[in-house]
Amino acid sequence: MQERILRLIQIDWEGPYSLETLTDLQDISQDYGIYQIYGKHTVYGKDVLLYIGKADQQTIGKRVSQENWWNTNDSKQLKIYAGRLAGVSTPHEELWSKEIDLAERLLISVHKPAYNSKSLSLIRDAELQDIHILNWGDHRDLLPEISGLRWTSKLDTMEYEIYRYNAIE
Prior knowledge:
The chain is an alpha+beta fold. It is built from five helices and six strands, in the order βββαβαααββα. It has a six-stranded mixed sheet.
């Protein structure tokens, strides 16, 4: 059996931004990554996580502006948080894109935002099993630490024994 290596993805979150201030997120050198959108939902209430998305090979500001958030009934109250991947050094573009994709999918799978329901059925469990995410900064309602080991089926069939104290007589 091939041993799989845990892939650590760290995300530094910043925000909130409004739709109007998203133009601040146009720095081509760093504004690729993940974003979260908070706002009003008819069932879940006000200021709740509505959507998690990714901006890969385009800035977060540009990507969010391509979506139709201006047409929501509460667009002035939307709050957007930008998540930039962080690490020892910036990886080559192909690896950076892969990490953005994996991070978005695991975050959606774990947090299940209301407007990502279509994406949930497309998530392949096996690809996320060895992903570990650390959320830093203003990560809002996202869990600070997420492990694919915990949130996928990888350990569902694992056999284990409850530890017991065995006194030596």
